[in-house]
Request: fold
Amino acid sequence: MAFLSALRIAGSALTAQRLRSDVIANNVANMNTTRTAEGGPYRRQQVIFAARQERLPFRTVLIAHSMANLPGLLGVQRPGDGVQVQNLAPDGRPPKLVFEPDHPDANAEGFVAYPDIDPVTEMADMLSATRAYEANVTTLNAAKAMALKALEIGR
Reply:
């Protein structure tokens, strides 16, 4: 079913972009966090996406291809089955040091380690995630409209 495939792909993108938005919001919320459970300041998180690939069911392989090509096709994966979040990785940038000798987390020299989070970069990333989410909603609506039109043909 190509229609269900389009819905599954758009749905995976919606899920991935929603998580990306959540991670960006978490980065902005913690941009002044100087103390974490792991020790040290908060580390900016980044979402790593990867193409989602699902193995073709054995029955589909048999139907879609001739028996002569069967041995090479048993491990075939479809390209383009959407997107998945592969990893949430901490940013490798070192924290920025700010001279605040009265801060409770200041070191012996009076410097406090803050996360190196740029609010402008985070807002640009949030705008990008929002636009990608909107584009996938449009894709979902287009697939739904095509399915409804196809149903009207049978009347």
Remarks:
- Helices lie at 2-29, 58-64, 70-73, 119-153.
